[in-house]
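Two proteins follow. First one:
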Amino acid sequence: MTIHQALAYILRSTAVAALSVTLTATAHAQQMDTKTPRQRPQAAKPDHTAKQQKPLTRPRTATPCSEFGAGFVRMPGSDSCVRFGGSVGIGVGTVP
């Protein structure tokens, strides 16, 4: 092994080690930045001064689109009608 090859090997090894340490430290620093302290849930205190809340209403169901046939329903908030369905078929035959 020549001096040139030995020097290239040492520099390459040093560069790989420095890169791996840098990437590990960066990943650890980013992970530490994203963690936020977790708040403990507070017990709900009854608020006697609050206004009477409205009762929950049921979401409207989609209306049928009878002009397209059975199974079609109108998408809420639009004029489009859709039908979801599917099937699976298997064909078996013999080759003469």
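Second one, unrelated to the first:
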Amino acid sequence: MNNSLKQIGEQALNLSPEERAKLAEFMLESLNEPLADIQAAWSQEIELRVAAYDRGDLSSYAAEDVFAEAKLSTK
């Protein structure tokens, strides 16, 4: 841990429990920002796949067949 990070940690420990909880929440939320980009990319991918399926460009498989094959591969 570098010195500035250690100093910030020590300063955070001087906060009240409520302030530390708010700080922790703020820090955790800051880690989720890239998640929004990932979710947006998946939403776009889903739209593309649904459109391809609607056009008949993608094959589909019955759920029973998929689960039966999955069971066989785990044995």
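SUMMARY FIELD: The chain has a mean pLDDT of 90. The first helix runs from residue 3 to 13.
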